[in-house]
Amino acid sequence: MPAYNAAGTLPAAVGSICAQTWADWELIVVDDGSTDDTTEILATLARTEPRLVLVRQSHRGIVSALHAGLERARGRFVARMDADDLSHPDRLGEQVNYLDRHPEIGLVSCLVEFGGDARASEGFARHVAWLNSVDTLDAIALNRFVESPVAHPSVMFRREFLLAHGSYCDGPFPEDYELWLRWLERGVQFAKVSRRLLTWRDSPTRLTRSDPRYALAALYELKAPFLARAIKAALKEREVWVWGAGRVTRGRAQLLAKEGLAVRGFIDVDPKKWGRHRDGRIVVGPEAVPDPERALIVVLVAKRGARELIRAHLQSRRYVEGRDFWMAA
Asked: What are phi and psi of 155, to 5 degrees?
């Protein structure tokens, strides 16, 4: 658990771990150079809880704090937790039992409960709903290019995988999403316990609100190389088509071009665009999509509700997700 100026939420977060029904744990809290009462609160809590391990360092950011915590970790499994969230009492036990029962799984998450005002944080609430809908091994793997398919503070993974596949990297991108994309690309299987075992709070100080590493542009820059490699692995002699001919979508397609993928054309539902050219490539309607034997389609349309309609249309045309098309927005 990294903690930076988390005095207001830290007692409840730590208390939620102390209340776990699974008792064989240690909680490593890395105080990342806090300037509020975080340090004092942790010292007080540690005096009464021997399973609480306190690590202090100067303020270096979340990746450094994660590395500091992992260096102290001794268990077979590592569970992530944030200082402003709440683990439900059965969380650790459910996830430990799942990994013990499924040795083929490298990381297990869970459903999460939205902790905030759904009206004031409508976007975050929608994201939580989407995240909870991505709840099977196949769904996690197939949706990994849409957004991060697991909530970072909800995961538990096998510690040995850090040596086998690498740990968190620091860069102009979300450290968790980069790790998930890398592990999934290397064949690590992700699963979810089908219970809400974490309350994911929408804190106003959440990094996703303020840090440029979590901006949309950074997400697309990050996932483009991973997506391009997945496409190349399945492409064979087929052409690459992009669903979406708008300016933003074409900009995202340019990131794939930088990875050596030539886009043959664009697909769009707007009849006014059909037959026209965008960036030197033809625009066609959904009914003019080539057969899957000739085309692999990347869906880069992010409009709400569009993904489900596009998926249904492509599946009606015998396209198989993950082989003939990828959702990536």
From this structure: -95, 155
